[in-house]
Amino acid sequence: MTDERLGRRRRVGRAISASIAVAGLVLAGVVVGLAVGSAALSTPVAVASPTVSPSATPEASATPSATPTRTARPTPEPTPEPTPVLVPAPLTGRLVTEAQAAQHPIAVMIDDHRDARPQSGFNAASVVWQAPAEGGIPRYMLIFGETVPTAVGPVRSARQYYIEWAAEWRAMYVHSGGSPGALQTLRSLGQGQLVWNADEFRWGGRYLWRSTERWPPHNVYTDGEHLRALASTVGATDGPLPAAWSFGPPADGDQRPVGTEIRVVYPYETVTFRYDALSNTWPRFIDGSPEPQRDTADGAIVAPTNVIVLRLPFGLLDDGSGKDRLEVASIGGGDAWIASNGRLIHGTWRKDSVTSPTLVFGPDGLPAVLTAGQTYVQVIALNYEYAVTAGQLPTIEFDRRALSAR
C-alpha cells in the first residue's frame, strides 16, 4: 500500500472517530435532560407569592363593584310672576292694572256725516259723547282711558261745549281745526289748564294723517300708539285720577229685563239702543237699520254697557261765521235718563263748573250707580224727540203636572 493511500485512510478514520464522540456527547446530554425533567416533575417546587405595595393600584376584581346611583337634580321651579294689582279704572269702573288706570284720558272729536261712516275707535273708548252740531248733524267725542284704539277716525273739528266736557278729565283734546271760539279757548287754556290742545293742523303728518280712501274733510285718522306718543309730547302725563261716577257689578241674569229700548231723534238721524239681556249691553242702531252699528277698527258691534240721555238747552251761536253753529248751557243741571242692567231710571244731571264732572242722580237725589263698562252719553236739545220703553223681567213657567209627579 502506498504512503498516499495510507494517509487518506488515517484521515477518514480520525473524522469518523470525532463524529462518534460528538454523537455520544449529544446522547449523554439528552439522557441527563430527561433525568432532570423527571426529577422536576416528581419534586414540588415552592413559588414565591408577589409582594403587593400598599400604594399599588389593585387590579380589577373578577366581580365588578356596584355602580353608584346618580341622584337626579331637581328641576328648578320658575320664579312665579307677581300677581298684578287690579284697581277700578276711573272712567269705566273695570278692574285693570294700576298702569292702565293711570293712563291720561284722550278725547278725540269724531265726524258723524254719512260720508264719514263707518267710523273707527268706538269700542275702545271708555266714554262716548254725542251731541248736536251745526246743520243738525251730531258729532262724537270719544274719550279713551285704560284701552287704546287700533284706529280712530275720521277726526273732526272742535266745539266749545265739547272742550268743557273734555275738561272734566283735563284730557288731551284731539281735533282738526274748530270754531273760532273753541280755537281761542284752546290757545289760551289748552296747555293743561282745561285740556291739552292736540290740533291736527299742528301735529298732522306725524301723529295724525290723511287717508287716501276717503274724501276730505272726512279722512283724518290716527291710532292709539300715535295718540299716546302725542300725549307725552304735549305734556299730558299719566297719573292717578279720581272716579267721577259710581260703578257696581252687573245684575244677575234673572234680574235683567227683556225689551228695554231707548230712542233719541236728532234732525240728521235717529239713534236706537235695544237692550240685550244675554250680554247685558245696549246694541246701537242708526236710522232704523236692522243691523247694529259696527266699529271698523275691530269689526265688532257697538254695544255700550250704560246709556245716559241728557237734555240740555241749545241755541244758535252768533260768532259771525254765518254757519249756524250752536252753543249749549253745559254748566248747570237738568233732566236725565240713566239706563243700566236693562233698567231705566228717570233722574237728573248736574255740572257745577267747566272742570267739574257731569254727574247723574236717581229720583231719590242719590248718585246713580252704573254697571262697570263703557258708557254712551247722548246729549239732546230740549225740543228733540225721544222715547224710552221699559222692559219686563222674564217669567219662568213651570209644568205643574211634572212638579206634582215628583
Protein traits:
406 residues, alpha+beta, YerB-like fold, 2 domains, ten-stranded mixed beta sheet, four-stranded antiparallel beta sheet, 7 helices, 22 strands, 20% helix, 24% strand, globular
CATH architecture of the largest domain: 3-Layer(bba) Sandwich
Which sequence of SSEs, written as H and E, runs from N to C?
Answer: HEEHEEEHEHEHEEHEEEEEEEEEEEEEH
Write the CATH homologous superfamily of the largest domain.
YerB-like
CATH topology of the largest domain: YerB-like fold
Note the beta-strand portion: 15-25%
- Regions with pLDDT < 50 over 5+ consecutive residues? 15-62, 398-406
Helix content: 10-25%
Report on the architecture of this protein.
With 406 residues, this protein is an alpha+beta fold. The chain folds into two domains: 86-234, 3-Layer(bba) Sandwich (YerB-like fold), CATH 3.50.90; 247-389, 3-Layer(bba) Sandwich (YerB-like fold). It is 20% helix and 24% strand. It has seven helices and 22 strands. The chain has helices spanning 3-42, 98-101, 160-166, 180-189, 200-203, 224-234, 400-405; strands at 86-88, 95-97, 106-110, 127-131, 139-144, 172-175, 196-199, 209-210, 220-221, 246-248, 261-265, 270-274, 284-286, 306-312, 314-316, 326-328, 332-340, 343-351, 359-361, 369-371, 375-381, 386-389. The strands form six sheets. It has a ten-stranded mixed β-sheet, with helices on both faces. Strands 13-12-11-22 form a four-stranded antiparallel β-sheet, with no helix packed on it. β1 and β2 (95-97) form a beta hairpin. The model is unreliable at 15-62 and 398-406 (pLDDT under 50).
